[in-house]
Amino acid sequence: MKKIWFSVATLLLGSSLTFGYDTEIPDIFASEQTEQAAVTPESNSGLTPKRPQTAVIRAQQTAPPAPFVPVVSNDAYISETPRIAQAETAPMILAPTVSEPAVDANDAYIYAELDRLRSAVQQLQMGNAKPNTKKSWTTPKVAGRLHHDLFTVSEPGDLNNYQNKAGLRELRIGITGNGYDAFDYKVEFAMGPAGTVNLVDTWIGAKNIPGLGYFRAGHYNIETGLMYMGGSVNTTLTDFSPATCSFNLGRKFGVSSEHLFAKKRIRWIYGVYQGQSTNNARFIQADNQGQLFNTRLSYAPYYVDGGRCVLHLGGHYSYVNNSPAYQSISTYVGGNSFLASALTTGDTGVNSHSRSGLELAYQSGPLKFHTEAFFADFGSAGTARGTIMELAYFLTGEHRTYSLENGVFTGIPKINRPFHPFKCGEWNLIDGMGAWQAVLRHNYTDLGDWSDESGGWQHDWTAGMNWFWTPNIRCVFEYTHSNQIAGSHQDVFGTSIRVSW
């Protein structure tokens, strides 16, 4: 019995100590809560508040230590211990109160943290949100191109003294953008041959104009053929075809209207422009600047697999009226406008003339066939014409992209295995061989016979290879054998490194 009474007394003593510890903690916690609230006002200034030290005490309060129960060897006592411990500790287990809890330092810390996190999330959402193009302009997109070319010209006896040429062929940087769900624009700068900086494409467009479709105004290319409208970034080799270089009209100031029909399979554009070609969007100062009317129609009757297989038909017509009269057409050594002029019509002596052309292209996966014909009619002064035929094949299976909206072939959508050098340990390795495209081209340009005995014809055969490292980086290798009237001929070797972004 003494042992039992001793055990009961011990349990009662442990319980009283426990209740005393629990009743003294709120006073300590309340005092520390008041001090903490006075010391940490950062939550109102947007800073992260310090976590109250009383959180440790609160954690201890919620889990009070178990009462001490001495261990004795009496079997009878051991059998009675569970019931005694349960009876003595039962009053310590309290049901949670349903009433509104009081705000303490822990609550203030949690609320401040939630406010800070909510503000941070809102700032991230605002920073990553895309501009509303119905109410503002999008962020301008920077684009450009960099072309370095090298050409070597060889001819028997150096008859015409044509010079080799190497250097920066083209450097352009521009921005494009759109906004208000209706407008787009482009501003592009180009470094000229003498180091001057010119404005090239500078225009603004508006879509869904009643009766006009897509309306554009500014300084941009006149649509004179399939290959020319693909742009210098997307030329098959180092330049447009020789006939394309001879018969295009360059950039001019003007306005145009574009229309799409039959699920974008048919595209029609017409426009009116200033008559003198500038290729520099600054100004033209002349009493009579002339006028030019241009129209182009393209049709894709066969278009499958996103343009991997496509048949393109098209044609264009331009009427030019200039004063003072100076109209001429030239050919170039090796068919490349980066080199010197080979043949020319000279001044035709007429104020107006017309130019036209036909387009045909077919692409089936990696195989692409392309042909165009060009005509220029100067009335009684004479005529000029040119044709090109081009066959291109991707040895690695890629294909060119075809744009229904513009009626042209552009770059490569993707490369199966992009060229990518890397280092593995002590070894330099290559991942992927890039895309390889073989090209064979024939060109014929006939400038006719003119009163000053200028003009004549030129044949060009070109074999080349494109090596695409990525869709935006490629190396070009080409060889051209060119023949002109009176037995003159040249062999031109060209290489180029081209980067676009």
Description:
The protein is of the alpha+beta class and 501 residues long. It has two domains: 2-128, no CATH class; 141-403 and 432-500, Porin, CATH 2.40.160.10. The chain is 19% helix and 44% strand. The protein contains six helices and 22 strands. The chain has helices at 2-39, 54-62, 75-89, 105-128, 226-229, 242-247, and strands spanning 141-154, 165-179, 183-191, 197-209, 213-221, 251-261, 266-274, 291-304, 309-321, 330-332, 341-344, 352-364, 367-377, 383-394, 402-403, 408-409, 420-424, 427-431, 435-449, 455-470, 473-484, 489-500. It has a 16-stranded antiparallel β-barrel. Strands 10-11 form a two-stranded antiparallel ribbon. A two-stranded antiparallel sheet has the order 15-16. A hairpin with a 2-residue loop joins strand 20 (455-470) and strand 21. Helix 1 packs parallel to helix 3 (75-89). The longest helix has 38 residues, at 2-39. It is globular and about 100 Å long.
